[in-house]
């Protein structure tokens, strides 16, 4: 992978990749592996990008597919995540993101969701429209709306269950 491609096409969307990889990995080592594999797959399949969607939407789709594939291959049950596992070139921009305890609590709750619901809520948290989420997930926008409401309720129960 060329440094220019990484800098111009992947790095501007690193936050997307980091959030998805973080939601599907359970350790620093897994996170680093997932991040690296996502970047590699984006580079390998860059010529398959047809331009029918935004580049960021395509990055989401590739990231989700890679993470889901890796998750199926590697079913480790470690529940710790080391926040300094971010690639050095994006570490400074994301330190606050990883240090907030409430955010870690949210990610722990998100990790308890099934794989599809995890993907949907991550896209929702990125403020994607129901239509964008539906496009990425290959679902109907109305179905996405219903699932998001159910996922929110499930997350409330998971988070409050940990606090009480």
Q: Could you explain how this protein is built, in words?
A:
With 164 residues, this protein is mainly alpha-helical. It is built from nine helices and no strands. Helix 2 packs antiparallel against helix 7, helix 3 packs across helix 4 and helix 7 crosses helix 9. The longest helix has 23 residues.
Please state the structural category. Answer: mainly alpha
Q: What number is the mean pLDDT?
A: 80
The profile of the biggest β sheet is:
none
Task: Please report the total strand number as a whole number.
Answer: 0
Output the number of helix runs. Answer: 9
Task: Round the Cα radius of gyration to an integer and report it.
Answer: 16 Å
First and last CA, distance: 48 Å
The SSE order reads: HHHHHHHHH
Give the uncertain stretches in residue-range form.
76-86, 91-100
Strand content: under 5%
Oligomerization: single chain
